[in-house]
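Revision sheet: C-alpha cells.
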Amino acid sequence: MLLSPAMFSDHHCFTLTARMSDSDEAKTSEEESQLAEQETETQEGEMTKNLKKRDLDAVEDEDSNNESSRLEKLEKKIKKETARKLETDFVLTGEEDDDALPLACSICQNPFLDPVVTNCNHYFCDKCALKHHTENDTCFVCNEPTLGLFDTAVEIKERIEEEREKARAMVKEVTAMLEKASTMADDAKGVAQKVVKMVEEIETMVEKVAAMATKAGETATMAADMVKEAEETMETAKANMSKAFVVMKSVNWNV
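Predicted:
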C-alpha cells in the first residue's frame, strides 16, 4: 500500500505524538517514583530524628536521675560520717577526761574516799591502796611497783570539789525551779478558785435573770389582761354613752 505525502505526514505526526505521550507518561511515572522515594526518605529521616531525640532525652533523664541519686548518696554519706565523727569525738573526749581524772576508785569501783595517787599516776582510795599493798606491792592497774608510796591526789580532790559545786549549783537551780513551779501552782490554784467563784456568780446571775424573765412574763400577761379589761370597759362605756344620748333626746327639758 502506497502512502500519500499527506497520509505520511499524518502518520508521522501521530507517531511523534504517541512517542511524546509515552515519554511524558514515563517521565511522570519516574517523577512520581522519585517523589515517593523522597517522601519515604523524609519520613525515615523524621523517624530516625525522633528516635535519636527520644534516646537523647532518655539518656538525659537517666543522667539526671543518676546525678540526683549520686547527690543523695553523697549527702547521706556526709551526714553519716559527720555524725560518726561527732560521736567519736564525744566518746574520745569523755574517755580522755575519765582517764585523766577519774571519779571512782579502780579497786572498789566506788566514789573516792581520801583519794591517793601512785608513782604511775593511778588513783585509789587510801584504804583500798593500803589494803592492796599489804597483799601485793605492785599497782592494781598496771602492775608497776608502788614502793608503798601513795601521795594525796590533790587534783582528784579539786575535781571532786568542782563536781560537788556543780551538783550544788544544779540542786540550787532545781530548787529554784521547784519553788517557781510551786508558786505557779499556787497562782493556778488561786485562778482556778476565782474561776469557780466567777462560775458560781454567773450561775446565780443566770438564775436571777431567769427569775426576772419569768416575772416579766407574768407581768406582761397581767398587763395584757388589764389592757383587755380596759378595752372591754371602754366598749361598755361607749354603749352606755350611746344609751344616755338616746335618753337625753327623748326627755323634754321644758318642764
